[in-house]
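Changelog-linked ticket: nicotinamide-adenine-dinucleotide example.
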Amino acid sequence: MGIYALTGGATGIGAELKRQLIERGDEVITVDIKEGDIVADLSTDAGRQAAIDGISARAPDGLDGFIPCAGLPPVAKPVSLIARVNYFAVIATVEGLRDLLAKKRGAVLIVSSNSAPMVPADDPYVQDCLSGDEQKACAGIEERDGQTAYAGSKRAVTMWMRRHVVPYAAQGIRMNAVAPGITMTPLSEQVMEDEQLGAAMKQFGEMVPLGGVAQPPQIANVMSFLLSPAADFVCGSVFFVDGGSDAMLRNDEF
Ligand code: NAD
């Protein structure tokens, strides 16, 4: 079967995806700050390089897929850490593994969020991320709030994916994104415990059209499909897995 690399495999959605991939017979290389095949802090250049080097050493013949799933919640401090992990680490690792992915015509699956559309494309933070200027993006977002840092990083990473679909596809690499709604993981638990953001998140959770919040398998099921041969013509798509919340908020946008 295939060989996949996954960041953020220690807990939550990433841990569940790892379990599913292994169950179907794939090999999975994990990178995380807590535990994994490669323990690395993806907020730093050194950690990103250690991830790329460690994955390259373990999969010299190429990758069938890469899932940069590691992420920090809107309550993380300093706020700029959110930009570093949720945007800049994703781009650095995807770009760093591009040749390995091309060797096996692999798939990249970005982990966005249904909060991504809440920050406009022309927001200065989103634009600073997309310009690739990590210092500028980090300095700018320190003056703002965690929710903008989080949703804006997801907006930017999804736009980056869409902008790079064509050159990656030219090498046979499919890129897609999954955009989960609220999912019960250590990340969302941290937000729920926050005095301000917790109340807003609970309120949002009560408005989900299908009712309730997701459990990690409900997100990982869709991710497994997107990484499977059954999805071999799916390219450049953003899959909302949020019980209908995005459709409720943005009827006419798709
Ligand atoms: P989680 O906290 O269980 O998993 C995140 C993982 O990232 C953890 O294993 C953590 O150790 C790792 N990580 C954090 N900082 C790191 C760093 N500097 N270097 C290396 N690894 C680091 O949370 P989750 O909810 O499973 O999140 C997975 C992804 O799903 C994230 O990108 C998150 O933004 C996204 N997401 C989650 C939700 C939700 O409601 N849970 C909704 C939309 C999107």
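Closing comment: Example verified and attached. Strands lie at 3-7, 27-32, 38-39, 65-68, 107-111, 174-180, 238-241. Residues 8, 10-14, 32-34, 41-43, 69-72, 85, 111, 113, 180, 182-183, 185-188 surround nicotinamide-adenine-dinucleotide (CB under 6 Å).
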